[in-house]
Each structure stands twice: as structure tokens, then as C-alpha cells.
Structure prediction request, 322 residues.
Amino acid sequence: MDEPSAAELHQPVLLEETLGFFTEDDRLIVDATLGLGGHSEALLTKSPEIRIIGIDQDEEAIGLAGSRLERFGSRVRIAHANFGDIKKVVGPEAGKVDGVVADLGVSSLQFDSETRGFSFRYDAPLDMRMDARSERPTAADLLMTLSQVEIANIIYLFGEERHSRRIARWIVEKREAGEPIRTTLELARLVERAVKRSPKDKIHPATRTFQALRIAVNRELEILENFLSDAVEILAVDGRLIIITFHSLEDRIVKHAFQRLSGKCVCPPRIPVCMCGARQKVAILTKKPIIPATDELEKNFRSRSAKLRAVKKLPPSPKAEN
Prediction:
């Protein structure tokens, strides 16, 4: 039986909405989270003049995306890197980029993997590294080495899980009893026992905990903040930055960063002097985030939490140059 293609494995989210921010006059676009290449393929098809620089840290995804985009030849350059390295990857073409697209969701390839540890649907080692070959600690390593307080903080801050202290306590108790959590099903079952599931809950009790650990393992939110500033920096004037998020923590970071980059102070109201460094570098193109239409939700359940925000880079103001 043939292996499924990248197109069969993944449906790009908010595809038409993303394409709407680009024109046939665009020449260079960076797909900062290439994944399986869905957004890149559509952009390359939109205009024969567009070139793509694709970035991804998952070598398996790069292989599949490379095959998918092979027919576009030299119009595609793929880098094995984290999207936080965008300035290094783009290199001398910084300032010539017409657009940057970043879909921050976990790809179907990763989520559906029976071995990568992203999902509790399969019993797998609790890994969760986007780059499976990196030397970063796995989720199991974190649960084995961090203190109870540190584990609780991760689950609360990155998963917004109100039962984080109980979950952390049970994890540490298991560890001290010589039964550390090593697999996805071990963790999912522990969380399910620790969290009383309400009949109104639409998601599995372990969903927030798994999200939190994935974010911690890959330093996703820390990298995201720096990436947003770097992405605007490499854009040409009038270049667009398109970000698709899938949970409230990411969306909040993007929203506040875009506000700051548009010149709006986001400091607490009681601070007498602006400390956030707000300076107008972009114009916000989406007053409210764009969400999937009903027909997309029906075709792709995983798009349900997606939100798209976009900005356009402005020419430097005379004041900023002085």
C-alpha cells in the first residue's frame, strides 16, 4: 500500500483567507511553518512569479513537503530550522520579502503520529519534540526532573488548566514511588483520574495538559514573541505578515505584539510612562481575527479554534529615522 501524500495527510487551515492577502505582484514569500506545504503549494500556484522560502524543524514534514512542491523547482527553497531563526534563514534577502505566513498549529503528521507522543489517542513515548532529532528534553524528561511547583506552573500557564496543582502532585507522587510517567496513555489516564470531567466538557480532560507540555518542550511562546518582531523586520515595505493561531495564549501574544508594532501602547493603564516600546511599524489589516467559515468547519474539525491576524509593514517614519 502506497504511503499517503502530504496533500492527503493535511488540509491547510484558512487557505482562501490567507491567499486573499497576496497578489500576483508578490515575488518572495516565507512560509515560516512549512509543515506539509499546503499554504506554499497554493501560493506557488497563485502566481508563476512567486518564490517560497519554507522553514520547518520536522525532517519528516520537510521530506513530504519537498515531494509535494518538487514540481515548482527552483522557486522553492526549504530550510531545516525553527521559525524563530527566520532572519538567519532569509539572510541577504531580508527587506525584500513580500509576505510571511505562519500557521502555528501542530500538523496532522505530528498529531496523528503513533510514535511522536503528541496525542493520547496512541500509546507512545511521551516525547512531543517538534524536531525529533534535537537534544532538547522530552515531555517525559520534564516530568521526571522538574519540581512539583514547576510542573504545576507549566500546566496552569500554558494549558490554563485549573486542576494543575493536583495533576502535578499526582505526577510527582508516581515518580517518587518509582513509577515515572513515560508514555502518553499513562499521562492521559492520570489526568483523567485527577480531573473530574463535566458532562458539558467537549474536550478530553488531558487536552490542556498535553498542550501545556508541548508548548514547554518546544519553547513555543518564548520563540513566538521574538519571531513576530523579526518577521516584520525582514519584510519589504507593504509586505504582509499572516499568523494563524489555535489557542488563546498564542492569539493573545500575536494580538498584543501587533498592537505594539502598530504604535499602540499596551502597558498597564496606571503606568505613567510607556515601557513597552510601542512604535508604529505596521498597519493592522484584521480589526478582528478571521475565523473559519461554516463549510470549512464541516470539512475540517481541527480548524475550529483557528484565528488569523494580519498586518502590513509601513515605511519608516521620519521620526523613527532620527
